[in-house]
């Protein structure tokens, strides 16, 4: 074993090897870096970790991740990371065996996933999920020796159907190469299982390939990583996880489990009605958003909420007639929602007309929409963003502020955290015959009279619905 300079991280192994034909001490540190000396200069690689290694003849080839330097790197540019192979030649068979044992030990100690079930939604976003998976995701998983079982989704709710009955014990995690829609299906599928408690511990990884990608943006942005397929894949390979609040939306005995958001009014109308511009990718939200502001709608109705500590001054005190039917259910059939006794809570209310009512679980609603800047993944609360009335010009400027989350500072916006919520949606104020859309996680939850595609069936009716949150119920792969 060779000696290490004092400030270096502790070494797992340090031995003389051949690097580029020159004998030098090579050190593998506990942090997974490889250090050696070349032409009198100390060099380091694998700053972002080791993916795997192979023995080729006398050589050991280590597949590493390094910081992107802007230049060309073998393996190609991959977001803030680059893949780079590092070759070295141990000086004896014994030394090679020792190196391989230590590299194995190091990789095994990292707790990385070994087998993943991967959904690829060829329909999401700009329909490029298949290409993203083959070109950017699969090669990295292969380099990391992660076994994959790949399933393309063939129709809506296909992912949910599979997840409901799959043998979860065979996998370390589920990956969605998609937008947020498939993630929501996976969470709902897991929660509908009789063994939901165990199933929900299975981490879910997201690779951005939809038009919104709010969940993965919320995970990557706070740690300064770009919302790219590569950053997302590497986060999954590293295997760190975090828990995520799940909101139960119920109407009678019908339930939907939401992880991203619920919208009614302007945001829902833009999200759902802009579907016809799907070919534009995420630009569809801006283009149709402008159109919706010019012909602004307002809706009658009422919202009731249980404010989080510190937000008790919002709204007026109210009595909430909680829908008790929603508690009924056979526990053996799956998750039934939080045990919270909603009738015992201190409810408050706001009455319409409303331009927009928006509940958010995580900060980003889409890659360019910081909907709820203070939202936390597992604080047990939902962020509520309400707009009752707003001049059109101010509203246009507010839409541009969605990029950095400063819209919540507007005097036209109420921004608070809630523990539970009830929506009583009403008709449009300009035309009582027309009602709105209730959107949760990008899917239509309810369509009112004469709303967009109102002839198509939705899970719930355009009536009162209630929402409560279970803290940290689901598990996500996360960069930290
Ligand atoms: N083969 C398919 N054909 C049609 N729809 C599909 C198919 N596979 C999945 N879907 C449905 O596509 C919908 C949208 O998927 P996804 O969330 O991946 O993309 P997106 O809507 O573009 O992105 P985001 O949800 O982030 O805005 C989901 O509801 C899913 O059920």
TrEMBL record:
Residues 111-253 form the DAGKc domain. It comes from the Eukaryota. It holds the Pfam family DAGK_cat. The keyword Kinase applies. Coiled coil: none annotated. It comes from Camelina sativa (False flax). The keyword Phosphoprotein does not apply. This is Sphingosine kinase 1-like isoform X1. Keywords: ATP-binding, Kinase, Nucleotide-binding, Transferase.
């Amino acid at each position: 074993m060779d000696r290490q300079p004092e400030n270096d991280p502790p070494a797992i192994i340090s031995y003389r090897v051949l690097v580029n034909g020159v004998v030098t001490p090579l050190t593998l540190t506990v942090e997974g870096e490889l250090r050696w000396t070349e032409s009198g200069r100390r060099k380091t690689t694998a700053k972002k970790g080791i993916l795997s290694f192979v023995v080729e003849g006398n050589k050991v080839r280590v597949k590493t991740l390094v910081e992107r330097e802007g230049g060309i790197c073998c393996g190609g540019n991959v977001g803030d990371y680059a893949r780079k192979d590092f070759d070295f030649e141990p000086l004896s068979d014994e030394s090679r065996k020792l190196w391989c044992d230590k590299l194995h030990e190091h990789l095994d100690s990292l707790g990385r996933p070994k087998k993943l079930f991967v959904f690829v939604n060829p329909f999401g976003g700009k329909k490029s999920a298949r290409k993203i998976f083959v070109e950017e995701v699969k090669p990295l998983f292969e380099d990391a020796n992660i076994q994959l079982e790949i399933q393309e989704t063939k129709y809506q709710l296909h992912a949910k159907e599979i997840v409901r009955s799959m043998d979860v014990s065979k996998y370390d995690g589920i990956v969605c190469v998609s937008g947020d829609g498939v993630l929501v299906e996976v969470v709902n599928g897991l929660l509908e299982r009789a063994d939901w408690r165990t199933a929900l511990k299975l981490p879910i990884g997201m690779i951005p390939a939809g038009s919104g990608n709010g969940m993965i943006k919320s995970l990557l942005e706070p740690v300064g990583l770009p919302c790219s397929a590569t950053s997302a894949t590497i986060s999954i390979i590293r295997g760190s996880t975090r828990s995520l609040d799940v909101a139960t939306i119920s109407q009678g005995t019908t339930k939907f489990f939401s992880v991203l958001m619920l919208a009614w009014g302007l945001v829902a109308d833009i999200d759902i009605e802009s579907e016809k511009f799907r070919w534009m990718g995420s630009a569809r939200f801006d283009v149709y958003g402008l159109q919706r502001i010019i012909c602004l709608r307002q809706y009658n109705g009422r919202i009731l909420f249980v404010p989080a500590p510190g937000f008790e001054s919002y709204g007026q005190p109210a009595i909430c007639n909680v829908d008790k039917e929603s508690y009924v259910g056979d526990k053996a059939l799956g998750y039934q929602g939080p045990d919270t006794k909603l009738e015992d809570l201190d409810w408050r209310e706001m009455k319409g007309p409303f331009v927009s009512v928006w509940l958010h679980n995580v900060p980003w609603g889409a890659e360019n929409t910081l909907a709820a800047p203070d939202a936390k993944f597992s604080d047990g609360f939902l962020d509520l963003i309400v707009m009752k009335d707003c001049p059109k010009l101010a509203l246009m400027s507010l839409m541009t502020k969605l990029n950095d989350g400063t819209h919540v500072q507007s005097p036209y916006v109420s921004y608070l955290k809630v523990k539970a919520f009830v929506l009583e949606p009403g008709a449009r104020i300009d035309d009582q015959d027309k009602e709105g859309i209730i959107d949760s996680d990008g899917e239509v939850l309810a369509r009112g009279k004469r709303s967009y595609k109102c002839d198509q069936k939705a899970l719930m009716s355009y009536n009162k619905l209630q929402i409560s949150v279970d803290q940290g119920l689901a598990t996500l792969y996360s960069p930290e």
